[in-house]
Amino acid sequence: MRMSDETRVLRRDAEHNRRRTLAAAREVFAARGLQATLNDVAHHAGLGVGTVYRRFPNKEALAEVVYAAALDELRDLARAALAEPDAYMALRAFLERALERAATDRGLRELMRQGTDAGEQITRAREGIMERCGRLITRAKHQGALRGDVTVADFAPIVAMIDAVMDLPPAGGADPPWRRYLAVILDGLRERPGP
Amino acid sequence: MRMSDETRVLRRDAEHNRRRTLAAAREVFAARGLQATLNDVAHHAGLGVGTVYRRFPNKEALAEVVYAAALDELRDLARAALAEPDAYMALRAFLERALERAATDRGLRELMRQGTDAGEQITRAREGIMERCGRLITRAKHQGALRGDVTVADFAPIVAMIDAVMDLPPAGGADPPWRRYLAVILDGLRERPGP
DNA sequence: ACTAAGTGGATATGACATATCCGCTTGTTC
DNA sequence: GAACAAGCGGATATGTCATATCCACTTAGT
Which of A69, A156, A160, A175 is the most buried (most CB within 10 A)? Predict the structure, then answer.
C-alpha cells in the first residue's frame, strides 16, 4: 500500500522549496494581491516556475494553503467574541482585529471579498465567520446597543466600505484612517436614547 | 482659411454616426464601466470599429466627451449647495444627488475615483467639486453641525466607501442600501451634544 | 458623374498570464 | 559509489484580450 499523493514524504530539498514557496506566496500575495502570478511568487522565492507548478497545480490551490490557516484564525476570533458578555463591544473588537489583519494583506482582503471561486475550506471558514457575527449582531440588538434595523446583511457592506478605504496612508504619525471610519460607522449604527 | 479639424462640419451621415457613437458609449460605459472596449461601443452602436476610431482617437478622448458635461453638472450642483444657509444639509443633499447620479453609471464612478489619467476638463471639474465641498465642510463645522475633526480629506473616503457598496441590490421594494449607509456615516460625523 | 469623405471589420500588434516540457542536477537507497 | 527516481529551471507554447490600423468598398454632396 502506497501513500496518497497529498501526504507522500518529499525529498528534503523539495520540502524546503515547498516552504520557501509558501513563504514567498504569503509575502507576494500580501503585498500585491492574488492577481500576482505564480511566476512572481517563484522568482520571489528564488525558484523556477516549474518548481512551483510541481507542488501546486495552480494559483488557487496555493492561495488555499496560504490562507486556510489565516481564515481559521479569524473564525476562532469570532467564536471567542461570542463568549464575551457585551456583544456590541465584542463585535467592535472583532472587527478591529480582523480588519487590522486584513490591512496588511491584500490577498486576504480579496479572498474575503469575493464570494466565488475560493476553495472549499476558505468558503467554510468565511461562512463560520458570518454566522457568528450574525449572532453577535442579534445579541447586540437585544442588549439595546445596536439600532433595531441592523442585521447580518450589514456585516459584509461594512467590511466592504472599510476595505475601500484601507489603503489610505496614515496622516502624520497617527494610526490609519480606516480605524476612524470604522468607529464612525459603528457609532452611526448605535441605538440612541430617544429624543 | 480652413476650419480646424475639431470644428470641421461633418457629412450628414458622419455626424449621425458620431451621435450614435456617443449615445452607445454613454450606455456601455454606464453599464460596464470604462474598461469596456471601443469595439463594444462600436457594435452596440451598430457601427464598425473603424468608424468609431475615425472620430475619436482613443477611448479616453471618447470618455472625456461623454462625461465632461456630467461632471460640470455635478460641479454646478456643488456651487449651488454653497448658496444654501445650512451647510450641513446642503452637503448632505449634494452627496445624495451626486451619488444618485453615480449609482446608475459605473463609468462616471470610475472617473471620479481615479485621480490620474482623466483628461484636462474632467480633472478641472473634479477639482472644482472638491474645492466647494471643502468650503461646505468648513462652514458646517463652524455652524456646529459637524465634528471638529472632520476635514476636506474626509470627502474622498466617504465617496469611496459608498461607492464600494453601491452595487448592492435594493432589498425588497425599498431604496438601495447605499443611501442608508451614507446616512449612517454622515450621522456618525455630526457634532453631538456633550455628555 | 465625379470625388472626397466615410465605412466596416479582418487583422496586425503587443501585452500578459497560465501551464508544460525536457535536458540537466541532486538526494536517497542499497 | 552507482543507479535511479525525484526534483529543478526557465524557455517557450498556448491562449486571451484590448488597441489601433489599413484598405477595398460605399455614399453624400456638388
Answer: A160
